[in-house]
User: Fold these one by one.
Assistant:
Number 1:
Amino acid sequence: MRAIVCGAGIAGTALAWHLERAGWDVEMVERAPAFREGGYMIDFYGPGLEAAGRMGLRPRLEEVRHPVHEIGYVDGSGRQTSRLAVKEGFAEVVSLLRGDLARVLAEQVRAPVRYGTTVAAVRQDDGGVEVELTDGTRHEADLLVGADGVHSRVRELVLGPEERFIRYLDHHVAAYVVEDEDLSRLVGPRYRMLTVPHLMAGAYAVGGNRLALLFLRHEPDPAVPADPAASLREHFGQLGWILPEVLGRCPQPPELYYDQVTQVEAPRWSSGRVVLLGDACQAVSLFAGHGASLAVAAAWVLAGELRTAASGDLSPALDRYAARMRPVVGDVQSFGRRFLPWMAPSSRLRITARDWLLRLASLPGADRLFMNSLSPGGHRLIT
């Protein structure tokens, strides 16, 4: 059996890991010009971490994790307004850079990646699928996997235009990494956030004198600005704390990640011998906090169903995969929509209420309840 996986991120490489060990021939293509380093900080836990453990990847994840000892908010002068200490017992939340998780997975995959390339056309019949790539080459396979993100080209080709599937959540998000020894030491192994109405900026030291930065802004217009770095400086540059300094060193894409905050709601996850995976069909939004976990879990589920499929007809296996994953994804998407307004509150009153909630969560016993509330579903996916 042969698969073409479009998208060499977390979901695509996790599936390639499984397919290779099941004896499949895997070819991978990725529209980015090279492997994407860094990115934003993620919390990897739940079914994805369970799957990674069974894949034998937990020791490697421990090497690249950046433990969070404290979550807290500061004001424009850097003064702490609320905090929650993260106890050592929360070892089942692995905090790391998105790019580091992708690399851990990619290290275990034999298939080379054809970078700077994506799918241009798809033709399929009962016997297989023919894929034309943007480099002009044609390839035949038993299965085409669209693991190419929220703006999936594969989804567009087989299911229709992007606007049919995207739910815009009225926010823009940005992230990048700077190297600065003094700022890295100042922030330390604590996730620090500054919020004013409709704006949130966060920072966390990730080793090697690096500082990971994250920005969230309420914006009714989904259009991404022509100069995203200038837009960040315009909206966040006067807020104080460390922001004027780090924004003065803000790069342009691709080093700067800038996008809409969106969710994907696709009525179908497959068509014939083409199947979607990861954010292409199940994007929960960055602020639902569960996307990477669900991507790795979905790869586990899809691979498991494919192992039981007859070579002549993959459709029943693809349908079972979607039926198992869809309810979990729906729950996490709903959680993300409820949680997002607390990340960039709309008023100072709401900011004050959030600070009090965080203080209450610091009380004995309440901290575990608070952390558990951030793990909305998928605990029985990995069987």
Number 2:
Amino acid sequence: MSPAPGRRTSGSRMLQNLDWLTVLIYFLLVALGWMNIYAAVYSPDNVVNIMSFDINSGKQLVWIGASLLLIIVLLVVDYKVYEHLAYPIYGGIILLLLITLVVAKPIAGSRSWLDLGGGVRLQPAELAKFATALAASKFLSTINLRQQNFKDQMKLAAITLLPPAIIIMQNETGSALVFAAFILAYFREGISPLILIIGGSAATIFILTLLIPKIYLIMGVTVLLALATWLDYRLLRRYKTMVAMWAVVVSMIFSVDFFVNNVLQPHQQNRIKALINPEADPLGYGWNVTQSKIAIGSGGFWGKGFLEGTQTKFDFVPEQSTDFIFCTIGEEQGWVGSTILIALFMFLLTRIVMIAERQKSVFGRTYGYCVASIIFFHFLVNVGMTIGLAPVVGIPLPFFSYGGSSLWSFTILLFILIAIDANRSQDLAR
């Protein structure tokens, strides 16, 4: 029996409305990632077929094939399901995170992987990103964030912070940090920019305290406040507020050392030290960053050529097919290849923002900005840590790094948005 005419027409219309340019960029990034995963594990002394299941590229091919099936399911399912079931999906992932915390075996000190058997493992922390994006978008579609009350603020904070809180308990700090990206999406929906300013200022003070002697930093803050008061004499009327701000900043400056030495774990302290001065211990905590920069720098302008990277071949950079996959591009494809890859990500992010802005519903728009924020955070930190501008926190490069959980997570994240976008005209009709 042939399908009903209405259904066939609806399916045809959805295919016509798909943002094929975004789909093309997705497949291009996945294909380039697969080739570079092979380059990262390639050994001239033991050449293995790129599709062999004995190496990471062959295993990644299985995850890519599974992602294709996943894409079909995401596009076939009624797009309204993602909004209607946002809270149940979120609750299911929260439950899965708690189960993982209890039953997962420690791997490199982290209880974040579920063993599914047959050597297959799943990291629920990756799936928590799209689930949180759905739940937060659903919640924001029911309120006006510009006129929200304190109770609504706390609800949104709880939705956003519960998953990373459990993930931190799993000792997976890097994955938990990603949830800070949600603030960018909330800013688009009307949250006060004061939160971004305070957060950015706190991060800047933290970094500067590690780089500059405290006395000079305090003098700088004092001069800046004095200069602001001189430029705007009305601030003198608020001298109590100014003094309180100065006291808070000075307190933060003096608390950084305590936080680093007494709150952070030894491996986290080493990540901070590697960010500040990796050359201080090039054979210890500075090894990853030092070798990463050597690999990227040795590529020069054009690169050494595919499968010709010496740093890659001889395993100087650890985790090169996952966290440090960008090194392979830098060494083998040089500045040109690195620039093209960065341009692809920038184009993808721009495209996602355009998709978000043309949505007819608050849910669709907010979800689109959540997708853009998460991918941007991953891209920024991953590339930054390979060139020594961000701490090494184990964050994969979207669609590019080896790993099934990561690829599935970003595939789900992106193609839910593509499915919502393909049906945006129905939102207008409603």
